[in-house]
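Deliverable D4.2, example record:
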Amino acid sequence: MSDILTVLSETIDRRLSTSDASTSYTAELASAGPTRVAQKVGEEGVELALAIAMNSRSDAINEAADLIYHVLVALRLRNITLQEVLDELARRHAG
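Output generated by the structure prediction step:
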């Protein structure tokens, strides 16, 4: 399950280090700064919550994917790796 998250995280890393904002949404988003990325995380979280409340399966799936992407970008901007988050989830599950 986390394989696609790893691929996505690596793609985000690559785009942030090699792409410019005119050719990459990821680079454009990151260039707007952590505050803008945090706003996107909030927007996507609200959109996911609304899709779930409205019982819209396809919208919930799409919004969850958007939220995960934006969370990964936000984490990257704060130098937090996906592995650190996965390790924390594993620690909580073990306890």
